[in-house]
Amino acid sequence: MTYTQMTKTRSLWFVSFGISILLIGLLLWVVDLTSLNAALGEVKLPLLLAALVPLTAEALITSKRIQYCADGAVPFSRAIYSNAWYVLWLGVLPARLGEVAGIGVFKKVLGMSNGSAIASIVVQRIYDLTILSGLLVLFMSQIWLDGQLSIWIAVGIFILLVLLIMTLPFWLSTSARCLYGLNHRHRIARGVLRIILQAKSWYRSRQHQRVVMRLVLATLAKWLVNLVAVLLIFSACHIQVDLATLLVICILIHFLGAIPIQSVGGFGVVEVGLTGLLVAAQVPVTDAVAASLMLRMMSLGYAAIFFISSFILLRSR
């Protein structure tokens, strides 16, 4: 690494940490710390422990999805081990660099090529975005429309998602042509174009119809158990909001991390955004801040437990 690269890396860490600390400081500034401490002290521990079950299910389902996306036959234990590293990097590295680190993890642990590792992560993110968007529309329809119409909307969304994913190579080709036509000579545009083409090539060679359906079901199951975990954490923090609205908030949490603000693992951005969503749903500010901090602590705590357990038990395998 050159001196210039080292300087840029240090600056990135400094800015990211600064933004995260500033946002958390702003969050703590708007509440009474004594009341916040009391709210955290009233958290229901049994519900937090119960949330560990769906969190574990999510980790295993995500690992299975990684196994589906790997090149060739990969033991499930290696998929779990790679997922543990991947989740760790996503939580501690700034500016979404965890995705970059994930490429290295897939290459080293799963033996994937550079192009396959990039394409695998891109395709998984597309699956996540598609399923989450479908669930968001479904739950929002529950708020604004009658129940029977919502059921038909759910059926329509599921069919649409399956068709969208099954025709993903076409949409990747269309995106590549549009990007090439707009400005393919720009450095960033060339990089995005290269990733899209790699994803298309990898998808066509690896993602057969049976595998695609498995990935659809795995992604759907992953986010459903994640919603259960978040609901249990909110319930432990005495958040009282109608279920449909709370489910919408639970999904919007995952979009908050994609906001292009330099922070460490979304730390600060997610907490401020989640607090704002809960306050908009008529939750007292203190309870909203307590729930936001508790969700972060549970996420980081479980990621650490998952990593340490996987490192001890699966490293040699």
Strand content: under 5%
Instruction: State the total count of DSSP E strands.
Output: 0
> Which H/E pattern describes the elements?
HHHHHHHHHHHHH
Query: Unreliable stretches, pLDDT < 50, 5 or more residues?
Result: 1-6
Largest sheet: none
What is the 3D form? globular
Radius of gyration: 21 Å
- Helix proportion range: over 70%
Structural class from helices and strands?
mainly alpha
Determine the N-to-C terminus distance: 32 Å
Mean pLDDT: 82
Number of helices: 13
Give an overview in words.
The chain has helices spanning 3-29, 33-41, 45-69, 76-92, 97-110, 114-144, 147-166, 168-183, 187-206, 209-236, 243-256, 269-280, 285-314. With 317 residues, it is mainly alpha-helical. Helix 6 (114-144) runs antiparallel to helix 7. Mean pLDDT is 82; it is low at 1-6.
Strand and helix map with partners:
Layout: H1 3-29, H2 33-41, H3 45-69, H4 76-92, H5 97-110, H6 114-144, H7 147-166, H8 168-183, H9 187-206, H10 209-236, H11 243-256, H12 269-280, H13 285-314
Helix pairs in contact: 1-12, 2-13, 3-4, 3-10, 4-5, 4-13, 5-6, 6-7, 6-9, 6-10, 6-11, 8-9, 11-12, 12-13
In short:
This protein is mainly alpha-helical and 317 residues long. The protein is 83% helix and 0% strand.
Which terms summarize this structure?
317 residues; mainly alpha; 13 helices; 0% strand
